[in-house]
Amino acid sequence: MIPDTAQVPAADQTLRVLSFLARQRGPVAARTIADSLEIPRSSLYHLLAAMAAHGFVVHLESERRWGLGAAAFELAGGYARQQPLARLGRPLVASLADHAGENAHLAVMIGRDVLYIVEERAPRRPALVTDVGVRLPAHLTATGRAMLALLPREQVRALYPDAAAFADRTGRGPRRPGELREVLRAVRAEGLATEDGEVTLGLRSVAVAVRDHTGWPAAALAVTWPEDSGRDGAEVALLVGDAAADLTRRLYGAQ
């Protein structure tokens, strides 16, 4: 039986706020939330403060706007691991690995990390660190960059406010917000993301994001191969792009 929401008004309003933010293309002002949901502004600020303390929302002070926080991504990642994303993605990742002849994987974003939920290893190819359940810094991975490039710039600034937010694995990759902005600008221009030895020396990757019905990055597909294999990166990128488009159609229909 569904409980009467009048018995739990704060819980009801909290869930309504989270659902509202999830439908937006980017962070919004508190006044917009209050007016849209008909919640008294004083009550809304108390709700937002509590949600921010638990990481479900983030306040962008310079913009005076509110957006979803890392904990909300955690919930989205948990749903993805248990439901259609992994199930529908698994055969596509297997097919991608077969056609490319290289390792392929599917990842979702959780805060500043990517979480790998499906991986398919090609014959006679080395094992990768991108095993199922592994997390890696999003700004270093092709999958993470593909998803970060689709987030509102304010959201990226909130995730990477300063140099302390940038983890390092091989000495390569962006280490400051300005460097990450340049990387993401290139991803948006090309429609795909790459990385070269920033996760593991000697390995390259190309990734394309899977967008939901609002254009939000739900996941990303990628292929990884040894840099000395002589592979044509453009050819691999076409295969990854086709697979990402196929998964998008299966999840959300024609867009």
From TrEMBL:
Where do the HTH iclR-type domain residues begin and end? 8-70
Q: Where is the IclR-ED domain?
A: 71-253
| Presence of the UniProt keyword NADP in the record | no
Which SUPFAM superfamilies does this UniProt record tie to the protein? GAF domain-like, Winged helix' DNA-binding domain
Q: Which InterPro entries match?
A: GAF-like_dom_sf (IPR029016), HTH_MetabolicPath_Reg (IPR050707), Tscrpt_reg_IclR_C (IPR014757), Tscrpt_reg_IclR_N (IPR005471), WH-like_DNA-bd_sf (IPR036388), WH_DNA-bd_sf (IPR036390)
Q: Which UniProt keywords apply?
A: DNA-binding, Transcription, Transcription regulation
Designated name of the protein: IclR family transcriptional regulator
Species: Microbacterium memoriense
